[in-house]
Design brief:
The protein has 92 residues and is mainly α. The protein has 4 helices and no strands.
Length: 92
C-alpha cells in the first residue's frame, strides 16, 4: 500500500494491516478517489478558458474548486442540498 495512503488511513483511525500483501478495499477506495480528482482536473483542462485568465495559477485554482465541488468539500449543508437539487433537476 502506498505510504501516503497508510498515513492518511492511520490519521482517520482506519486499519491498514494486510499480511497477504493483497491490495485492501481501503487502498482501492483511495485509488478511486484519486482517479475522480484527476477526472475533475481533466474537465477543467478541457473547458475553454479565456486567454485573459488562462494562467497556470488560475488553472490550479479552477482544478481545486472543481474537486471541492465534486466531493462537496468545504460546502455548507445548505449548499450541498442546493447542489444535489440542481444535479437532480429538482425545482422548488
Amino acid at each position: 500500500m502506498n505510504e501516503r495512503i497508510k498515513q492518511l488511513a492511520h490519521e482517520a483511525g482506519l486499519p491498514t494491516y494486510n499480511p497477504e500483501g493483497i491490495p485492501t478495499k481501503l487502498e482501492k477506495f483511495a485509488e478511486l478517489i484519486v482517479e475522480e480528482c484527476l477526472l475533475c482536473c481533466e474537465r477543467v483542462i478541457s473547458d475553454p478558458v479565456p486567454k485573459s485568465i488562462d494562467t497556470f495559477e488560475q488553472g490550479g485554482i479552477h482544478c481545486m474548486d472543481e474537486i471541492k465541488e465534486h466531493f462537496g468539500v468545504g460546502m455548507s449543508t445548505e449548499d450541498k442540498k442546493t447542489l444535489i437539487k440542481e444535479l437532480l433537476g429538482v425545482k422548488e
